[in-house]
Design a protein that fits this description.
The chain has a nine-stranded mixed sheet with strand order 2-1-10-9-11-12-13-14-15, sandwiched between helices. Strands 4-3-5-6 form a four-stranded parallel sheet, sandwiched between helices. Strand 1 and strand 2 form a beta hairpin. Helix 16 crosses helix 17. The chain folds into four domains: 215 residues, 3-Layer(aba) Sandwich (Rossmann fold), CATH 3.40.50; 191 residues, Rossmann fold, CATH 3.40.50; 118 residues, GMP Synthetase, Chain A, domain 3 (2-Layer Sandwich), CATH 3.30.300.30; 45 residues, no CATH class. By secondary structure, the protein is an alpha/beta fold.
Length: 600
């Protein structure tokens, strides 16, 4: 029987009682929240919102990093019948204020690290109520009946994205939008529930922000189906992620493709050296086409590092490159990849963990229609598709006769597998009228070991020429020139890269889920290639200003080296670093650059 609303999931929370629901770390302290405690905490927030005169339909901004408090507040807002407005913890204050104005936010629930905004609605700091929540016993009549509460058509949240103009655009998502994706998944899990006892308790380590629809789907809605625990990992250091997976005896890792690429690179770095690298290369070749358990046994030394309960990587938010997917599969792990977008409540298609077709993003989920337009654009229609965008109190429809134009190009094979080709707006059309897909060129460039990341952008008259922007593992043009030549060797003549540059900063500007911000990269690259680096518009320069003390410190060191001076103990004196300060700096550097450093 179809669920009436998302609160039917909330009623399942109490059923799992003392099972762990959320695990998080605060400094050196490990905290956990059981399902019973999460249930009581959500009820507390529902009552707290009532005390602030929040009524059904009011918009409540939820602003902060992943935490147990964030999860409890989310359910508390839905229990009140209000609308959640999730906001990324790293969003600029200007973006947040514009979203607040557009949504007509009545109350802000914010983490302590998020500053109070001038002229904003009243706010509550969600960390300040933990002691009160800990002592709360849920009322005997506080349960939520399966038929109670909002309907499937009721708005659950308004999720703001920046779009291509950086202007906040609120995607309206209903209870039914999420349930249309969750119900097919729930039915698909039924045949595997008999195996769940071998992995119980199921634990997901997640690196995806809860402000992102994929992060919500996997950390808020899927776990109650299994009584699973979610482990919030804040580090992006591959070694730290692997340690957490093993320590928490995790079952799967939830991540965006960029993090899996970094994890892939981190594992390969551990096998530097002639004998180790030869073993890795030889064993990867041996694993090709072998059965799952044979592959896992061949790489048992790697499985021992992750822990024997760990078996899957779950990727979403963008397309995973074939090389990374193939690498983890050969190691003997399942790779689950979905395709979707915010406007489809996360999912359109999903591959099977054991029967996935290489290079595809799976089959279209039941209950929706999908077709390709004449130019190959993916069109989708179904209950999972958002009704529209929020604009000053009204919902502007986003589709034509219910069809959503995704802006993505794809292919459907005879078996119904969907293959992602790239963004329609990013396709480069040569003077000969041939289509060049930047994703194909980027995949060729990434084959070179010195390429840390890359982006291919249109350049020249009419944007008819591909230009490679490279992030290199080492400085100097020689490695970049070699990488471009190597990439061209595997590309067709019309795909050849003749223009390239090495990105001058430590990393690309990125979205909260790690995607390069192509419009900003293209704008600055054009200035550099035209020989006018000093004339970058103020709006672009702002994207590259140091946003943290660490950025300012790294810029300071980089400037010192560029001027020919040495980085030595004079900097220690200037910065007045204690031994503890140096340890914290090393930790920050490790997280920023995804490496392990020795203090000596």
């Amino acid at each position: 029987m179809p669920r009436k609303n998302l609160l039917s999931l909330f009623s399942d929370l109490a059923r799992f009682g003392g099972d762990v629901a959320v695990i998080q770390r605060r400094g050196y302290r490990r905290e956990k929240l059981t399902y019973k405690e999460l249930y009581a905490s959500a009820l507390f927030w529902s009552h707290a919102l009532a005390g602030r005169s929040v009524v059904p339909g009011d918009r409540v901004l939820l602003w902060g990093p992943n935490s147990a408090e964030w999860v409890a507040c989310f359910w508390g807002v839905l229990l009140r019948g209000a609308v959640v407005v999730p906001m990324d913890s790293r969003a600029s204050s200007d973006f947040v204020q514009r979203a607040i104005k557009d949504a007509g936010v009545k109350l802000i629930l914010r983490d302590r690290q998020q500053g109070e905004l001038p002229g904003a609605p009243p706010s509550m700091i969600i960390n300040d109520f933990m002691e009160m929540v800990d002592g709360l016993a849920p009322p005997a009549d506080a349960g939520v009946g399966a038929g109670a509460g909002p309907a499937r058509t009721t708005i659950a949240e308004i999720l703001y994205t920046s779009g291509t103009t950086a202007e906040p655009r609120g995607v309206v998502l209903t209870h039914g939008n999420f349930l249309a994706n969750l119900e097919p998944l729930e039915r698909g899990l039924d045949e595997y529930r008999k195996y769940e006892r071998w992995f119980h308790p199921v634990r997901f380590v997640t690196l995806v922000p809860l402000s992102h629809v994929f992060g919500q789907f996997m950390a808020l809605f899927v776990p109650p189906l299994l009584g699973a625990a979610v482990v919030f990992e804040s580090s992006s250091n591959p070694a730290e992620i692997i340690r957490t997976i093993k320590q928490e005896r995790a079952t799967a890792l939830i991540a965006v493709p960029r993090m899996l690429d970094l994890l892939h690179a981190g594992i390969e770095r551990e096998f530097d050296g002639p004998s180790k690298s030869q073993w890795l290369k030889r064993t990867l070749e041996y694993a090709r086409g072998r059965k799952f358990l044979t592959r896992a046994w061949a790489f048992r030394r790697i499985h021992r590092r992750f822990g024997w309960k760990f078996w899957a990587f779950i990727s979403g938010g963008a397309a995973l490159v074939n090389e990374t997917e193939d690498f983890f599969k050969r190691l003997g792990y399942a790779v689950v990849q979905g395709y979707g977008m915010t406007e489809t409540a996360s999912l359109i298609s999903l591959n099977h963990p054991f029967r996935a077709t290489e290079g595809s993003v799976g089959k279209i989920l039941p209950g929706r229609e999908c077709q390709l337009s004449e130019d190959g654009e993916i069109l989708v229609r179904g209950e999972n598709v958002s009704g529209g965008y929020w604009e000053q109190g009204t919902v502007r429809p986003l589709g034509d006769q219910g069809w959503l134009r995704t802006g993505d190009l794809g292919e459907l094979d005879a078996q119904g597998n969907l293959r992602f080709r790239g963004r329609k707006k990013n396709v480069i059309v040569t003077p000969a009228g041939l289509n060049v897909y930047p994703e194909d060129l980027e995949a060729a460039l990434r084959q070179h070991p010195a390429v840390r990341d890359c982006a291919v952008i249109p350049f020249g008259p009419g944007g008819a020429e591909p230009c490679a922007v490279l992030l290199m593992m080492e400085s100097g043009d020689h490695a970049a020139r070699t990488a471009v030549a190597g990439g061209n060797a595997s590309l067709a003549e019309y795909q050849q890269i003749h223009k390239w540059l090495v990105w001058p900063d430590l990393d690309f500007p990125r979205t909260p889920t790690g995607k390069p911000r192509l419009s900003v990269i293209a704008s600055r690259a054009a200035q550099i290639l035209d020989g006018r680096p000093g004339s970058v518009p103020e709006s672009v320069v702002a994207e590259f200003r140091p946003s943290s003390a660490l950025d300012q410190l790294l810029e300071h060191f980089s400037t010192s080296r560029g001027a020919g001076s040495r980085v030595n103990r004079e900097h220690d004196e200037e910065l007045n670093l204690s031994s503890l300060d140096r340890v914290e700096l090393l930790s920050a550097l490790e997280e920023r650059f995804h490496v392990e450093l020795n203090e000596t």
